[in-house]
Amino acid sequence: MKKALVVDDSAFIRKIARQILENMGFEVTEGKDGAHALEQCELGLPDLVLLDWNMPVMSGLEFLTKLRKMPGGEEPQVVFCTTENTRDKIMTALEAGATEYIMKPFDQEIIRSKLEQIGMV
Questions:
Q1: pLDDT tens figures, 71-111
Q2: What is the per-residue burial (b if ≥16 Cβ within 10 Å, else e) of 21-32?
Q3: Could you write out the three-class secondary structure of the chain?
Q4: pTM check: above 0.85
């Protein structure tokens, strides 16, 4: 079973994303911010990270930069899922190692489509 990590400071967003991913057959863990997500990754790297940009303690971009420097950290597919929609933010995320970018609000159809594009489903 593929493993996913949902990282967002909103418990509501984590719950929705968890339900969507579990319905798609993923085993899901959660992180409430980038620092908590890194702790989760140290326990075992996921196959997929659904990542918010703006979070307390450590932003999504900071998390992504640190993840990519971890042993094996280049392997997880990282999909930003955020309200940040400027071309500069999207390019910054992709240059930092993000695989894809989804705008909030999202639904199961949007997530499934992106995950199909990157070969995760």
A1: 999 999 999 999 988 999 999 999 999 999 999 999 999 99
A2: beebebebbbbb
A3: CCEEEEECCCHHHHHHHHHHHHHCCCEEEEECCHHHHHHHHHHCCCCEEEECCCCCCCCHHHHHHHHHHCCCCCCCEEEEEECCCCHHHHHHHHHHCCCEEEECCCCHHHHHHHHHHCCCC
A4: yes
For residue 87 the two structure tokens come to 């071309």
Domains of the chain: 3-117 (3.40.50.2300)
Question: Is the Cα dihedral 21, 48, 62, 89 positive or negative?
Answer: negative
